[in-house]
């Protein structure tokens, strides 16, 4: 930037074109050297050496213009700001001597009056103070980034551990329940059936944890979509809901959804859980066709969504607290987007309706075609 400004300065001061050209060439040479040096192979603080060359060019510029330091001060501060973003405080302190030499020596050589020399006692400490402030903030940001990176590593390891390690004991539980179910009758059989459904759901939730990790890291999710009767999909999902909660389905027999069955089930159960946790019964589940989209709607009759929460409702950890960690609606939004639809919240009186749309697929081809 300094070299380009020197070239532009020729238009304003044709008489000093020779000096401006020399300064521009020096700036260009310094920039070229810094671009060609393989800094990544050297010590992390080695680029600070380039600052010494920059100070030398600043001094040359001041001297070549007969002690006029109009352009030296801003670039001195800019150089300090760059250094503060990348280097520790001791390097900023070490820069004090070359910065002073680069600013004062050209002024002394060109016999500038004391009042001009005295400007160094204002500019240089101010530039150093600004650098210290920037360095402190940059250091805090780097520390926060490292802390977040460690948290992310721990979270990833935890998700993978939970998702994988839960499968072995769950398989044992499932085998035991299946063995007992073969000879059970009456109420015992119904209880064992419920237990088998829940173990199957836990296995799918473990897969869902891995999906969360994959969505977070790559933004992609592989779906296994097929045509499913909407009524059967909803009824299957509601079989995992406790009998003592008021959840009602209003789904026609003639609607067919083109969805990933497992992901649809996770979407619906997350929305029902959210409605029961934060809303009020009854919870009404409906599926209707609206043009090019099928709309899954889960409505509660509670107090609605607080205005402060609405902008971040479908974000991660939006409503974390004693009742949950705030991932349910975020997962719903990600699964909806993977299907080519979207998730939204619509106000009702009373309550709120969570709506997820799915694109309508081509009709199921007739058999034998």
Automatic annotation (TrEMBL):
Q: Which residues form the Histidine kinase domain?
A: 161-362
Q: Cite the EC number.
A: 2.7.13.3
Q: Name one GO molecular function term.
A: phosphorelay sensor kinase activity
The record, for PROSITE patterns, names: HIS_KIN
CC terms in the record's Gene Ontology section: plasma membrane
Reaction(s) the record says it catalyses: ATP + protein L-histidine = ADP + protein N-phospho-L-histidine
**TM helices/strands, residue ranges:** 52-78, 90-109, 115-134
Q: What is its main location?
A: membrane
- According to its UniProt record, this protein's enzyme class is transferase
Q: Which Pfam families match?
A: HATPase_c, HisKA
Quote the protein name from its UniProt record: histidine kinase
Keywords noted in UniProt = Kinase, Membrane, Phosphoprotein, Transferase, Transmembrane, Transmembrane helix, Two-component regulatory system
Q: Which PANTHER family does the record match to this protein? A: HYBRID SIGNAL TRANSDUCTION HISTIDINE KINASE C, TWO-COMPONENT HISTIDINE KINASE
**Compartments where located:** Cell membrane
């Amino acid at each position: 930037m300094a070299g380009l400004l020197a070239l532009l300065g020729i238009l304003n001061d044709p008489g000093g074109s020779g000096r401006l050209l020399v300064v521009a060439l020096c700036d260009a040479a310094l920039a070229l050297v810094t671009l060609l040096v393989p800094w990544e192979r050297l010590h992390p603080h080695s680029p600070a050496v380039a600052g010494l060359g920059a100070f030398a060019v600043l001094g040359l510029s001041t001297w070549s213009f007969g002690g006029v330091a109009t352009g030296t001060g801003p670039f001195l501060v800019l150089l300090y700001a760059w250094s503060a973003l990348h280097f520790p405080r001791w390097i900023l302190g070490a820069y004090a001597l070359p910065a002073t030499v680069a600013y004062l020596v050209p002024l002394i050589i060109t016999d500038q009056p004391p009042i001009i020399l005295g400007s160094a006692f204002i500019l240089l400490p101010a530039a150093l103070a600004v650098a210290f402030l920037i360095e402190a903030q940059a250091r805090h940001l780097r520390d926060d980034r490292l802390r977040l990176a460690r948290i992310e590593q721990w979270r990833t390891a935890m998700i993978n551990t939970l998702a994988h390690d839960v499968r072995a004991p769950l398989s044992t539980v499932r085998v035991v329940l299946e063995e007992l179910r073969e000879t059970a009758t009456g109420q015992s059989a119904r209880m064992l059936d419920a237990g088998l459904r829940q173990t199957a759901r836990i296995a799918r939730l473990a897969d869902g944890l891995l999906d969360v990790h994959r969505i977070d890291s790559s933004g992609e999710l592989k779906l296994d979509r097929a045509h499913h009767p909407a009524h059967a999909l909803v009824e299957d999902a509601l079989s995992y809901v406790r009998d003592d909660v008021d959840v009602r389905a209003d789904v026609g027999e003639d609607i067919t959804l083109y969805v990933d069955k497992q992901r649809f089930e996770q979407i619906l159960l997350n929305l029902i859980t959210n409605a029961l946790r934060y809303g009020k019964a009854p919870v009404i589940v409906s599926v209707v066709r609206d043009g090019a989209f099928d709309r899954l709607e889960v409505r509660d009759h509670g107090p609605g969504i607080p205005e402060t929460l609405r902008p971040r409702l479908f974000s991660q950890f939006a409503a974390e607290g004693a009742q949950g960690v705030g991932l349910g609606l975020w997962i719903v939004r990600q699964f909806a987007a993977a299907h080519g639809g979207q998730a939204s919240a619509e106000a009702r009186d009373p309550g709120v309706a969570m709506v997820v749309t799915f694109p309508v697929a081509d009709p199921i081809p007739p058999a034998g075609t």
